[in-house]
Amino acid sequence: MEIDLEKLVTIKTNRNRAIRNGSKSFSSTLLYSEQDGDRTYSVLGSPNLGKVKVIMIGVRNPRKKNLGDANDMLPKSAIVWVNELRLTDFNNHGGWAAMALAKTNLADLGNISLYGSYTSAGFGNLEDKLTGLELVNNLNLQTSLDLELSKFLPDEWGVRIPFYIDHTRQIGSPEYNPFDQDVKLSDDLDTYESSSARDSIKDAAREQKKATNLTLTNIRKERVGEAALKPHFYDIENFSISYAYSGERNSDDETEYFKKNQHRGGLTYNFSTPQPKQFKPFEKSKLFSSKHWRLLKEFNLYYQPKNVSFSTELFRDYEETLLRNKSQALIIIKPTYYKQFSLQRNYGLQYDLSRALRIQYSANANARIDEPVGAINSATRDSIWRALTHGGTMQNFSQTLNLNWDIPINKLPFLDFIKTPLVYRTTYTFQGASFATQSLGNTLNSSTTLQATASANLQTLYNKSKLFKKAQSYNFQNEVDKIRNVNKNHQARGRNGARRNAKQDTVILTKAQRDSIEHLVQLERWKAVGYFGLQLVSCIKNVTAQYSTTSGNRLPGFMGTATIVGLDPKNSWNPGLGYTTGFNTDIASSLANKGLLTTDTLMNTPHENTLSRTLSLQASVEPIRDMKIEFSCTQNYSTREEYYYYYMSDLGKVDGPLSYIMSGNYTTTVWSFRTAFSNSDKLFSQFLDNRTTISSRLAAANPSSYTRQMVQDTLSGHYYNAGYSGNSQDVLLTSFLATYLGKDPSSYGFSPFLSFPLPNWSLNYTGLNKIKSLKKIFTNISLSHKYSSTYTISNFYTDAAVANLPNYDYGSETITTASGDYIPPVSMDAVQISEQFNPLIRLSMSFVNSLQLNFSIQRNRMLGMSFANNQLTETTRRGVTLGGGYRIKDVAFAVKASGRTMKFKSDIVLQLNLTYNSNMTNIRKINQNVSQISSGSSVWMIELSGEYALSSTLTARLFFQTNINTPYISNSYPNSTTKGGLTIRFSF
Fold first, then answer.
1. 536 CB-near residues (< 8 Å, 6+ apart)
2. What confidence tens digit (pLDDT) does each residue in 623-673 have?
3. Between 20 and 30 A from 646 (CA), which of 351, 354, 517, 663?
4. What is the 3-state secondary structure (H, E, C) of 572-628?
5. How many CA atoms lie within 13 A of 275 on its CB side?
6. Which residues contact 219 (CB under 8 A, 6 or more apart)?
7. Is 715 helix (H, G, I), strand (E, B) or coil?
8. Are 608 and 553 in contact (CB under 8 A)?
9. Whole-prediction pTM
């Protein structure tokens, strides 16, 4: 059985033609049928073959039509086989496409370009599938014009008017009617009798788009002639204007029309002074000619700012959309509008008050111009203009102030080796509320950073003294050699009784002469001792100290606005100049008393205070020649406070701060090397025993009678003072730090924060190979050592139960937990000490025969004290590395291939490394006094390689590696890995 699908489309078209011709006998709600031979085709409604998902095949026993037909109307039994469904005879006609492009240059006036393209329905690439072809006839026309309109004006005017405009027109005519998608548009249009109806459907079915862009960018007058030599702040050349317009018009079967107009206009002012005038009142004064008056003599001020800038930009986006009514019912569809109108202003100031004091200020203000709802008419235009003249509603305001001051301490005598730059930076932002959240108020943010640095190049100080300067360059061996050589040459000329041995050509000195030389050498030794003492005194070469602090505040619910430098003149210039410049951020209570905080009961955004402090110290020390020691210590402390201001109906006012919480983190460098080589089991036992000492000290400091009671730990049997049991955080933390930092638990402080960071160091010594006896064997001998240890509190916080209690400190706690221990002033989950000897010692030697040897020992440990489960996690790593290398120089060989001989000559570099690492993690449970190895293994690694450079870019490497891993725990198995091979490396 064959079904012609085109017949279905044809009868639907015939039905539609009859309806559109005014026939009352037909309707889309009635079944319409046509006979084609012995087949009947019917249509009901407006089906679309392109969206068919289900096909039903039915077999029907028809009724008896008349008394004379052969239908007995009895039930029949039949078997119907439907074994294949095939779609054939696709309409696969192709399409065509054409494109034209023309460009021309209008001399130095500008450029013009024209572009046009047409793609018919069914056009596509050869590899495109038939169902993927676009069945739309697309016409695309584009034109653009780029001109420099200032060419119509005299060049001596210096005017620049860049102009650009482009226009795009796109028309997409679909082959099929989008309102009846299985009927060709041309066939559907033939069903209409009137040309106006056909034009209406044709216009609605098309995809039309028009776009126009016009820009006038940076219209300005440049400085020409004498005006370029003497710029003034009032010159017209400091100004520039810009304007841009973008318009778009769209329509298709879904959208009746879409209109979009964007206008953007801007005015910019920028004045820069290349060389601001300087005021130096004491420069030529003879009274201050001495270097002791250098600070006053070089005193200077600048009359003019370095740069002043201002720009304002007006942006208007207006969009109007009307959806097409595709229903036959009476539905009222109104246009929708999208409107955005904003006024943005930017300010900038760079002012060097002097060479040492520099100020930078920048501000950005973005205001919203409120528009009435709906279309724009004469009445609404007046309200828009009123909003525009008032500057709009401030939506976002931000400003940044930077002060850089090079404190002139280096202008003082004997302090020129010190540099002390000071940086002050503050940022203020105002975030306006939207229409929907105006009752919740606006949000203010203030942030301030103060950074002070002091660096001293002490070598410059030492060079001021001739004695210290000579001590720095003094070499005892060179001086002794000079004494001996000078005396020998002097005696060789035959003076003082010396005689020459002609046979050996040497000078034979008398005993008196030798004694004289040794006396001079002895004097030089005493001089060397004195110079060595001066070298030790002047061993510190460079010292740098840096301290920075950053504080911030977030204040929601502000009911004022921001106009002049972020202040609101209508509300007593709040939030105040101190807040906007970062000097005073504690203003919430003051604003609440003035009625400038929101009274909306839905307000649930917390106020925030943040603080971050960083201290960093570095020093470079050279106690002896060729030995360099770098010291460094750092400390980082940061906190974040949250609290709320609520409107209390019973009080009739905004109250706060409420629900105060604080959290933060802390890191500092410490010394834990005192216990680095101690027995870890004994340290843990000492840590447990120290708890009784700490408990007694805390109880003695607390005047409460509760602490005089003694409580026995049922697991260990030890007695502790009430409130300070063996599981108390105060007791555990102090005992942990005192034990593993090697301090006396009877005097160690209770605070988890150390008063000052302790320095870590790295040492490198390269002077051994300068010894004569070793210089013959080694070309280089290097000794190095590095130590670093840090103490970290990843998260500490204030318990809500003690947050608002005054003078709540260690040894004076008053609030207890359910377990009977006092709540500490600062609670925390865990602390950690990380220590590294990387390396503990490293020896690297290079022999004169190209042999290299190196040996190093590493030792690391990490101690993690958890107060959540009262256990100590101890991770250790101990490693030894022994390595060697040898270079076989100028190894040459030749390779013959394809009748050609290739010669190679290079060094063979051999490397052998043997490494042993022992990694172990111990979990020590405090309550049970149990230690258990949770993970770890010993690892042996051997690596052997040989490398040969075939050319400057091609290198061959032969290697062999093996790893042998032996776990320390029984649920893991020993394993080993071995690999080897040849690697060819090509370098570009």
1. 623
2. 888 889 999 999 999 999 999 999 998 888 899 888 889 999 999 999 999
3. 663
4. CCECCHHHHCCCCCCCHHHHHHCCCECCCCCCCCCEEEEEEEEEEEEEEECCCCCEE
5. 2
6. 159, 160, 161, 162, 240, 241, 242
7. coil
8. yes
9. 0.78
